[in-house]
Records
---
Amino acid sequence: MNPARRQRLILIIVMVTGIAIAVAFALKSFNENLMYFFSTSDVVAGKAPKAALFRLGGMVVKGTVQHPGKGLMVQFKLTDFSKEVTVEYTGILPDLFREGQGIVANGALDARGVFVAEEVLAKHDENYMPPEVKASLKKNMPTETAQ
Amino acid sequence: MKFIPDPIGKFFHRMASPPHFYALAGQMIPWLTGIFLVLLGYGLFAGLYLAPTDYQQGDSYRIIYIHVPSAWMSLFIYIVMALAGAIGLIWRIKLAEIMAISSASVGASFTFIALVTGSLWGKPMWGTWWVWDARLTSELILLFLYLGVMGLYNAIDDKRTASKAVAILALVGVVNIPIIHYSVEWWNTLHQGPTVTKMDKPSIHISMLIPLLTMAVAFKFYYVIAVLQRARLELLQRERTSAWVKKLVMEQSK
């Protein structure tokens, strides 16, 4: 490789590495802002904003979905498998909403510490399988799929 | 220092000669198109008809057969474009410059398809067309990078200078590629984690995975076809004053 070419190669490597390091630092410092939602543990630990809208993500706890009133109001608990937060939502839930499903809700905490959601989005998982396979999985490993 | 053995070096020299490349690419395109159509036909049939429905999403998940291969292509083509750009910068090979710029519009199209199909998938499943989470936002930035590359290239009249500028922009943007890939692992996102491209076993049933991989290979062939066609055109435009193009035109017009 002739010297001019080698110099250009080194220059490019230095440039790309330099940018990568700069971006890595920038992303690290904005880490909090890049999180799309807060976890339920964050909320219980008081890290979430008190009087402002924020997004809360977690898994709908099995057996906690209730309809206390006559209308569309629905109440359920969200968990990240360590802490739980109660959520209230009035409106139509997405098709994928069900117990044990991951969701992201946009809303705010009220005085009772209940998260009042204005919008609920379903977060689907990365697993794809035919219904029969799911059924046989459930039969063979009841503990793993029960979460 | 010499890390490229002579026969390989000679092969690349011959390949990089414009008339040779123009003729060879022209011969390859029909074959590649044939393979592409077979793969696409099988992939679509298997994905839309043979593959079973999903346990959660029913038939809606079938958009995966367009969405995921397009998203993979958007990243893959960007890497190819940046590498070709770097080769053009270092070795000043004209053909590498042409490959880089010819890749840009194909990559931009795949990025656009990935964004649109993702949006169409997001509405019924997530309940929204678009959210500003890390995955979706970084993929949108990728589209802007592609458009930036195309715009910059067209803004500079001297195409050798334009190629250098474009290569630097493409190399700067490379930092976005790992961000897109790992965004779903580094941050909380609405977009789910990787299904296939991870160290672990793919979390998709084999009967759904095979059509997906077939489509991915088909899209790769499509990219090669599209980039060769664009490269041939770009080559003719750049070399329009050279002897071999004049000879070619004379032969064609007979």
---
Amino acid sequence: MSEAVSDPQAAKPPSDAWRAVRRLLREPLGVLGLTLVLLMVGGAIFADLLTSWDPTRINPRDRFLGPGAEHLLGTDQLGRDLFARVLHGGRVALSVALIATGISLVIGIMLGLIAGYGPRWLDNLMILLFDSVKSFPTVMLALALVTLFGPSLTSVVIVVVLVTVPGYARIIRTQTIALKNSEYVTAARSMGASPARILRVHILPNVIGPLVILASMDIPVVIGIEAGMSFLGLGVRPPTPSWGSILNDGFTSIRDTPWIAVAGGIPIILVTLGFTFLGETLRDVFDPRLKAR
Amino acid sequence: MLAYFVKRLGLAVIIVSVAMLMLFCMIYAIPGDPAAVALGPRATDAMREALRIKMGLDQPIWVQFWNFFTGAWTGDLGREVLSDRPVLGVVLEQLPFTLALIAGGIIWSVALGIPLGCFAAIRRGSLADRIVGILSVAVIAVPSFVIAIYALLIFAVQLRWLPAIGAGEPGDLGDQLFHLILPSLAVGLGWVGYIARMVRASMLEVLEASHIRTARAFGLPDRQITYRYALTIAVLPTVTLLGVGIGQMLSSAVFAEIVFARPGVGKLVYDAILTRNFPLVTGTVLVTTVLFVMLNLVADLIVGALDPRVRSSF
Amino acid sequence: MTVLSISNLNVVFSTEDGPLHALKDVSFDVPANRIVGIVGESGCGKSTLINAILGLLADNGHIDGGAIRFEGDTDLTTLGPDAMRDLRGPRIATVFQDPMGALNPVLSVGAQMVNIQYRSGRSKAEKRARAVEMLEQVRIPDAAAAIKRYPHEFSGGMKQRIAIAMALMMEPALLIADEPTTALDATLEVATIEMLKDLQQKIGCSILFISHHLGVIAELCDDVVVMYAGEVVERGTTRAIFNDPRHPYTARLLECDPARQTERTRNLPTIPGEIPDLRARPPGCIFANRCHRREDVCARPPPDIQIGGGHAARCHLADMPEMEVAP
């Protein structure tokens, strides 16, 4: 049944999408962003093919080796190959970004729809809650939560969700309120459509597009949160490689072996720049109205 | 104006109260007995029980919340575990260092961001405009702690131009400012991008306004039109932006304090977590949150004071 | 003596879809001490004309032939930006349409009025006194206190009077008034027009008055220039234009004026059709596609036919007055 519904929709967008892709490829910044993203995503996916080193294997004899043919980016204080750690760290960063953003979107959409479509008092209450959560500075929120849950990837995901959900929910809420009073929703309601059906059929498809673009633009922020918490030792636990923890290793010995910090920082810079350049260009190509944000 | 102020203040009080409630729920949910955690494994049951009563943990939850809530509003954030000093005193002792860092970040971001944004708007569409645009996006995107570490690596470790560690000699203002340069740049660099973009956008909007056309039609010099007639309006949203930005700068300041081994609330709360000094953690989070909400309020009021249109509409 | 003499002015904008001919062979004079009105629908090139005179065309627009002579021989089209800027304000002043947005919102009225006197060589106190004097002339109550206030503290009509005071403060030779009364209600409009007329006589300047309101034009102006799609289709004295229109567009425009309706009708008459695409101007008469008197000859470019007494119309049929069509 779902195929029958999605087919006619699928038949139309490709031309639009194709046009957008072609416009994206005309923008030098978009191409740069896309290249960086593909490079980093490819490196994470094919990490095992690109290097034969085990990112967690400790080699006490090869400690603090500088970059060279054997170890492209050198080794860290435990003799682990930094190139392998960077590639595998990419897996952690990208999967956290995808999972956390996905969860945030689902929760944000649900809360936004409830706030926008629900009774006035519920709306006000939720806005107050969103504002209160946002009133914590991000790092303070993260630190407070880590005291509660302990350092782990789960804590990272929870922090990301708490930081991003209020924003998504607000957008969905605003759009829902605007649509709620539109003529076709009023018409649907007068013909006896249930609130759930109105939300699903009439409101959700209209609000989800811009939201996904905005969420994809938050990916660098999410990667930054993961790396930052791991840098503080509050995110990914050792020995799992993460760009943040590599950076922390490098920071500890920054005077003597600066290449470790360089190895940890470069991928963070490249991936955040890549996603940001790509996101900015996509937004301009797809929906110039969002620029106002 | 007064009515507006009272309304904004009321909202701020409500938000802080809700934040306190959330924080309390979180403390309550921390696994394990805080008294046991505080005393360590070698304490006797009697000692734990005494501390539980002293900390009010034997009371029902709503009494505990009420005590926490009224205590927090009257400045009693409890005592920290290690030295048994009042938490508020410890936090306030460290706060000036963090505020100096944020102030430095604001100075960097305004001093670089406004001229860059204005320049880009005047040279709209030029190569220079595009370069400023890309640089702005880039400094916004890269996390501040990466900027902090690279700044440390380049300017302090490799080039040795600026000091790497600490806040400078107490009492020596010059030395303290010297130590502030690099960390505050790391805090403010991302905001250079935000401000440059915003000033550019609002400058372009203002330059299209009909009063600028009037000014041109009266033959005023371009410099006067740009700086006195347009820029004064275009920078107004910067204040609101900074009000929001201070929260993020606070986050960046935590990292900068750790990277540059500076005293401050960030270092304080980080060390408190590592030593499981929970009252200190919650106290610091609460103080910084109140500070954040207050600064937002102040930013709004400053906008009101700067813009004659807003000033008299209250 | 003419204050402003425009001859064969052409303005072209480069757009993504090719050049846009916004003004084509525009010619007319503004004699000293006279008020010349420009009428035309929106999009007829009135704003482009003002910007061309002021040297404030957008970056993608340029003057493509013709001359704008000001006070004798100075051709504004060849003047450098600095020389042009020295004329704007002291010699050519402008009042724009939108009284709400025409004044800078964050500077006090006094500061703005003092600023525009920056070339006068007066002392600050003198500039201030001059500003107060001008505000009194436009009947702003308590002018001495008013200069300390900000634009948003005044009503729309007061703001427009302040704008007029600013424009006439330097006693210019030419005042360009771009629909200065459109945003005001009818009572204010009459008062503003009368004030403008008084001040014009006192100062002895010429006014180029742009409006789509035929009643105001008839009331205020000595001469009228009718513009359509970037061309001057007819020009002459107000009496000649209103009593003896020779271009079919002028005739239809007058017919469509609500103030001239003799019968009560449900719908106001309008001219059917639209302004042609200015990126592809027709080779012949620009109005031909909407004209009820179109003939074969109209496919060729029409000449400016002189009727006499400065009255001219750009129409092949200008010499043949329109016959009353039997109902």
